[in-house]
Write a structure and sequence with these properties.
Four Helix Bundle (Hemerythrin (Met), subunit A)
Length: 611
């Protein structure tokens, strides 16, 4: 799992744990190194001090024995020599032990070489001292004195000089050891400070990374919140983090998308309301114009009624004349139909004869083809016979040529006969169609006769329809008054709706949404289509023409007598309260134009086209 996907508490505990672990590891390593260094320095210092002490004691005891030996040799009293003999022997034994102790220590090659030099000088001292003591013991005091002042003192001086040099070497080694210890302590302090600096630098880098991992999502969330506060909802927040900041960013993104969808819907609804209010205003204008047109149509209807009465009388006279003409046309059509039937029978006989001729030509063509095949076979057999069949081959070739010419002629005759047959069949079809047409004419004449009868009965029904039209004119006058009241109501509602739509559009215009988050057909388009669908009938200034019979069926006498329309609806609010009008239902205002008035044209002849 990535560090950025951890929860915030886990990040803090992990950072604190890493710091504590780093401090513990660093302290353990430094403590171990310091303890080991201190133990080694103490061991080295102790060993060096012991060597210096032993070397100093060794030099002191050697100097003491040299003084005792010189005193015993210089003294003429035998008791003095006897008195110094035992102490000198004891001191020599101590010197031997010290020399062994120093030799057993961890010495450098230089120290070991110096010890060998000191050992050689001691052996020389012991040898010269023994000879001097022996000379004095033998009574040769002068020779002993000469040996003492010469060889013994030189040997002792060399011996003591070697010891002093060894002591100086040990003191120098001690000083160098102390200097090395100081240098190692300084190196340890340098390592400690460097490690602390690196640890602090690592902690600072880790803190910077942790702070940056916190500041970045917080800054993004802050900027997103600021943009949302300003109304900008187009920012897309889709964080892949799994911590609290990722949850916060995703929540802000979800909030922005939800607000964007809501604002988008509100904006679409605002556009729809504005469109509907505009359609209503346009409908009111159309309704006002239609009201005026309806009044004009009422006057035209009165004039048309008189003209309609004359037209009905004229239609009755024309119906009687059409009846006699239809009977005459029916008789002529029946005679023509019989003649056409005879022509059809004759054409069928000609067609059958043509088909028989075509069959005969086909037989001739087959015979020519078989003759051609036989001639070809004869030519092949003549070719096999060689010189003897050459004349037969010539005859077979001529026969084949004649067969091919016969086949070609038969094919041409067959083509001509086929063309004649097709033309005969075409003529037969035309004659059949003419017969069918004559039958249709006969049936049409019968239908015309029936229609003329229906026209006579329709003239009677038209008289009844005229009375119904008179009552419809009265109802149109009442509906005109109702339309006037609805126009006032719709005008007030449209004004209030337009003002509210402008206020809502101004409030929603502050928001900025992301168009890519709203797929499909916008709601505003659907609303506009619905509004256009509702308002479309309002724009129509004239409806389709009304036939007299549907009017009589849809507008009975009792219907108009039972529901007289008042001059002005009682539920129409006062013009001084547009807000109240905006809340009233509008379907009645939009549904009023569904009652389509009569066309304004004065001619009534076109109304009878359905017959």
């Amino acid at each position: 799992m990535k560090f950025s996907n951890l929860r915030f508490a886990a990040k803090l505990w992990l950072a604190v744990g890493a710091i504590v672990a780093a401090l513990l590891v660093f302290a353990g390593v430094i403590g171990y190194r310091a303890s080991a260094l201190q133990a080694r320095i103490q061991a080295d210092q102790l060993a060096m001090h012991q060597r210096v002490a032993q070397s100093t004691r060794w030099a002191g005891l050697t100097n003491l024995n040299a003084m005792r030996t010189e005193a015993s040799l210089l003294s003429s009293d035998p008791g003095v020599a006897a008195a110094f003999k035992e102490p000198v022997a004891g001191t020599s034994a101590q010197i031997t032990e010290i020399q062994k102790t120093i030799s057993a220590m961890d010495l450098s090659p230089t120290d070991k070489a110096q010890l060998n030099t000191i050992a050689a000088a001691r052996a020389k001292v012991l040898e010269s001292r023994g000879r001097a003591q022996q000379l004095k013991k033998d009574g040769k005091a002068e020779e002993a004195m000469v040996l003492l002042q010469g060889e013994v003192k030189d040997a002792v001086s060399t011996y003591l000089g070697g010891q002093r040099k060894f002591v100086e070497m040990q003191e120098q080694a001690l000083a160098q050891s102390e200097a090395d210890a100081t240098s190692e302590r300084a190196m340890l302090f340098t390592i400690v400070f460097t490690g602390l600096a690196l640890l602090v630098l690592g902690l600072l880098c880790g803190a910077f990374w942790l702070i940056r991992s916190i500041q970045q999502p917080l800054g993004l969330a802050n900027r997103a919140a600021a943009r949302i506060a300003k109304g900008d909802l187009s920012m897309a927040l889709d964080s892949t983090r799994k911590d609290e900041f990722g949850d916060l960013l995703r929540s802000l993104g979800t909030m922005s998308q939800s607000l964007g969808c809501m604002v988008h819907q509100v904006r679409q609804s605002t556009d729809s309301i504005a469109t509907v209010s505009s359609e209503i205003a346009s409908g009111n204008n159309d309704l006002a114009a239609r009201t005026e047109q309806t009044a004009s149509n009422l006057q035209q209807t009165a004039a048309s009624m008189e003209h309609l009465t004359q037209t009905v009388r004229h239609s009755a006279d024309n119906a009687n004349q059409a009846t006699s003409l239809a009977a005459s046309a029916s008789s002529v059509a029946r005679k023509g139909g019989e003649v056409v039937k005879q022509v059809v029978v004759t054409m069928e006989e000609i067609n059958a004869s043509s088909k028989k001729i075509a069959d005969i030509i086909g037989v001739i063509d087959g015979i020519a083809f078989q003759t051609n095949i036989l001639a070809l076979n004869a030519a092949v057999e003549a070719a096999r016979a060689g010189e003897q069949g050459r004349g037969f081959a010539v005859v077979a070739s001529e026969v084949r040529s004649l067969a091919q010419r016969s086949a070609q002629a038969a094919k041409e005759i067959k083509g001509l006969i086929g063309t004649s047959v097709e033309k005969v069949e075409s003529g037969a079809r035309l004659v059949a169609e003419a017969g069918s047409t004559m039958e249709d004419i006969v049936q049409s004449v019968k239908r015309v006769t029936d229609i003329v009868g229906e026209i006579s009965s329709a003239a009677t029904e038209q008289s009844t329809g005229i009375n119904e039209i008179n009552r419809a004119v009265v109802n149109l006058d009442q509906m005109t008054q109702q339309n006037s009241a609805l126009v006032e109501q719709s005008a007030a509602a449209a004004t209030s709706m337009r003002e509210q739509a402008e206020q809502l559009a101004g409030a929603v215009a502050l928001f900025k949404v992301n168009p890519s988050l709203h797929g499909g057909v916008p709601v505003a388009y659907t609303s506009k289509v619905n509004a256009a669908t509702v308002a479309a009938p309002v724009r129509v200034t004239a409806g389709p023409k009304l036939a007299p019979r549907p009017v009589a069926a849809k507008l009975p006498n009792k219907a108009f007598a039972a529901k007289p329309a008042p001059s002005k609806p009682a539920n129409v609010p006062a013009p001084a309260r547009p807000a109240t009008r905006a809340t009233l239902p509008l379907p009645r205002a939009l549904a009023a134009p569904k009652v389509k008035p009569a066309p304004p044209t004065g001619s009534g002849e076109g109304d009878w086209e359905s017959f």
